[in-house]
Amino acid sequence: MRLAQKRWGLPAAEIARIFRHADVCAYISELYDLLHLSSYDRALDDVENHLAAKKCPPCCRTDLKTSTVF
User: Distance between CA 38 and CA 57 in Å, rounded?
Assistant: First the structure.
């Protein structure tokens, strides 16, 4: 969550709202074995892809500084 806060420039409450809305915790728990073997950056990239597939902000915004989703 802190990495998402830093990368997306959003407050923790907004990150938590986005994660709840897209059920990110369930997504992470399903893929925990794969995600814990990679870096936090790669895990957040995967979460961003999950959010983009669900068309959830902030991943559908084009003003963010991440290049992996777009």
Answer: 24
Give the Cα separation of 21 and 34 in Å (integer): 23
Q: Is the whole model's pTM more than 0.85, yes or no? A: no
Cβ neighbourhood burial of 62 (10 Å; 0-12, 13-18, 19+): exposed
Checking if the pLDDT of 69 tops 80, the result is: no
Instruction: Give CA–CA dist 3/38, Å, rounded.
Output: 14
- Gap between the Cα atoms of 30 and 8, Å rounded: 24
* H helix or E strand, kind and range, residue 49: helix 40-53
Determine contact, residues 69/52, Cβ cutoff 8 Å: yes
